[in-house]
Amino acid sequence: MATPTRPLARLFRPRVFFNQHITHRQPQRLSILRSYATTQNLDNVYDIVIVGGGIAGTALACSLAANSTMRDYRVALIEAMDLSNTTNWTPETNKYSNRVVSLTPHALKYFTKVGVTDQLYHDRLCPYSRMQVWDGVTDARIEFDTALLEQLGVNMDEKDPAIAYMVENVHLQHAILKHLEACRGIGATVDTFQKARVENISLDKESALSSGEEELNLADWPVVTLNNGVSLKARLLVGADGVNSPVRSFANIESLGWDYNMHGVVATFKVDQSRPCNTSYQRFLPTGPIAMLPLANGYASMVWSSPPEIATKLKKMPADAFCTLVNAAFRLSTADLKFLYSQLDKDTFEPLVDFQAEYDWREKVNKHGLSDMEIANRDFNLPPRVESVDDKSRASFPLRLRNSQSYFANRVVLVGDAAHTVHPLAGQGLNQGILDVECLADILQQGAANGQDIGNIHLLREYASVRYLRNIVMISACDKLHRLYTTDFAPVTWIRSLGLSAVNQLDFVKGEIMKYAMGIEYTGTAQQEQKQQNNLS
């Protein structure tokens, strides 16, 4: 029996399925599809089944739906949660989610190509063009600014030369789902199964499709069984289902890595609006880095990596003391911070001293002897002061490093957190997942255009050959930075500070770091990268 390489015929209009059985319809356009008489219900047979309806999974479905080459391919998107709240989301004035992403220019360019940016609320998209990064022990500093790239001759967006764009996760996913809905309206076949959890993935070795005179062998096509009893057969099964991926487990792909025994604490703040909203700030403390990222309208998002015992205090201490502690984390010495941590009640987490008075006194000491100009320069290189916190926004998540031993198996491929997880200190986790999606979509579209079987292991190998090494580089770099800066051992702090100050003086090196982090000149697929290398040579 042969394995089909053609897309499964488009029999039904795309639908959104909640936790219920599929209702069958009479086939449409039978004159075109006469050769696909089936020995089983074709309603549940798909070219591509994507497990995971987060940003990576929905972005892949949207990218395929927006491409005319893939329009006749039947795609199923499975998500355990209810996506209706995200689909119907509308922005609220002066209210921001604590789950945000720092989108690189390359990622935004990809979403523009797909058509997603047309669905974004652009006043909720906050570009920033500067980054301030410094050592919490020695104050050695490095500054990144897109003005440097322009000086080095890099083509930047004249209207908006940003290092990255801050956007809420729910906002981005809302735009993806809205554009996916629009793609359905012009003929894309994407069925969404929401509130449907994967119970089992297996192979049905007796399965076949009858195509007139020959039987088509589907024995190696994965079968995804949902908790509502529905089973979907996939020519290609995509795991976009997170760090504990059932798809990865089915493919017997091992996930390698470790937990950091640290938590990332997130929160959304109202900050001093007299300061421009165009800079992100990150200070490396021995207990873990703290970052402040700008949002629109005088708001900012924070992620603070810290040991579990400190993370618990940060989440449960009173809101006003928490705001003071965040200001202190960017401005006071590590000894001062250690003192403030110790002045929290072990049971109630209430401050045992007046945090604001302690902070004010220490800030006065820090500024003693400085001129007005020196004080202004110091404040310019520090984030705007936190004024208040949305107390419901305080939350935490465990930090871990993971990378799958392989990104593919026969008729199985992994993207996003299912393939790799990185420390958030560089803000590259979701961006790496978006690059996975872009690369995989391009390769599948090329394979479809060439009449290849999109589930064939040889086609999927090209995706892995492009993404695996680039992800390893980013994961390794973030891990080494984390280990380098989570110590106050004097010889290490001296060496790292010397290196940081030296790099800050080397514009070309800083430019290359920025271009890599921003995704500038990244082309996506192996064929495109080889073409670029040939042009350079």
From TrEMBL:
Residues 47-305, 393-445 form the FAD-binding domain. Keywords: FAD, Flavoprotein, Membrane, Mitochondrion, Mitochondrion inner membrane, Monooxygenase, Oxidoreductase, Ubiquinone biosynthesis. One of its GO terms (molecular function) is oxidoreductase activity, acting on paired donors, with incorporation or reduction of molecular oxygen, reduced flavin or flavoprotein as one donor, and incorporation of one atom of oxygen. It is found in: Mitochondrion inner membrane. Its EC number is 1.14.15.45, 1.14.15.46. It is an enzyme of class 1 (oxidoreductase). Pathway: Cofactor biosynthesis; ubiquinone biosynthesis. It is a peripheral membrane protein. Its cofactor is FAD. GO terms for cellular component: extrinsic component of mitochondrial inner membrane. It catalyses: a 2-methoxy-6-(all-trans-polyprenyl)phenol + 2 reduced [2Fe-2S]-[ferredoxin] + O2 + 2 H(+) = a 2-methoxy-6-(all-trans-polyprenyl)benzene-1,4-diol + 2 oxidized [2Fe-2S]-[ferredoxin] + H2O; a 4-hydroxy-3-(all-trans-polyprenyl)benzoate + 2 reduced [2Fe-2S]-[ferredoxin] + O2 + 2 H(+) = a 3,4-dihydroxy-5-(all-trans-polyprenyl)benzoate + 2 oxidized [2Fe-2S]-[ferredoxin] + H2O. NCBIfam families: Ubi-OHases. PANTHER family: UBIQUINONE BIOSYNTHESIS MONOOXYGENASE COQ6, MITOCHONDRIAL (PTHR43876:SF7). Belongs to the UbiH/COQ6 family. FAD-dependent monooxygenase required for two non-consecutive steps during ubiquinone biosynthesis. Required for the C5-ring hydroxylation during ubiquinone biosynthesis by catalyzing the hydroxylation of 4-hydroxy-3-(all-trans-polyprenyl)benzoic acid to 3,4-dihydroxy-5-(all-trans-polyprenyl)benzoic acid. Also acts downstream of coq4, for the C1-hydroxylation during ubiquinone biosynthesis by catalyzing the hydroxylation of 2-methoxy-6-(all-trans-polyprenyl)phenol to 2-methoxy-6-(all-trans-polyprenyl)benzene-1,4-diol. Component of a multi-subunit COQ enzyme complex, composed of at least COQ3, COQ4, COQ5, COQ6, COQ7 and COQ9. This is Ubiquinone biosynthesis monooxygenase COQ6, mitochondrial.
